[in-house]
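[recover] target loaded
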């Protein structure tokens, strides 16, 4: 399985994003099954819809909602009470990090579902001990 984060969704849907060509290529690999089933959360989607609304417009939200609705493989996980509470503990216990609460819900979800990697450009996933796609450039 592979976790899809906000930065990946944004790069995929924002036509002027510098990472867009790479995002489209990686998403095609994900759809082909290279990394296993794609997973995201309602918190990531909330963050993505808000970012798209503020920076791109409603058409991009419609494209993402269609993609999610039409995809037979993308699994959407709802953040429940136990993940919420564990995420709160995580953010409060890592005072040296600038992780968002949404990031923490992603990390907890990934650990609970044993997802080793994330499709993201957010370095916080590396800080939290996950592999990221695309990998860091040397």
């Amino acid at each position: 399985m592979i976790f899809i984060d906000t930065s990946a969704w944004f790069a995929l849907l924002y036509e002027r994003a510098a990472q867009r060509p790479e995002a489209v290529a990686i998403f095609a690999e994900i759809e082909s099954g290279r990394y296993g089933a794609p997973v995201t959360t309602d918190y990531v989607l909330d963050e993505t819809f808000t970012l798209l609304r503020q920076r791109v417009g409603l058409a991009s939200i419609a494209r993402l909602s269609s993609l999610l609705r039409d995809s037979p493989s993308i699994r959407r996980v709802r953040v429940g009470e136990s993940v919420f509470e564990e995420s709160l503990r995580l953010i409060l216990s890592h005072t040296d990090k600038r992780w968002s609460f949404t990031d923490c819900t992603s990390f907890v979800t990934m650990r609970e579902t044993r997802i080793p990697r994330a499709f993201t450009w957010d370095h916080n996933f590396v800080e939290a001990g996950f592999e990221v796609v695309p990998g860091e450039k040397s």
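[recover] notes: The domain at 2-133 is CATH 3.40.50.1010 (Rossmann fold).
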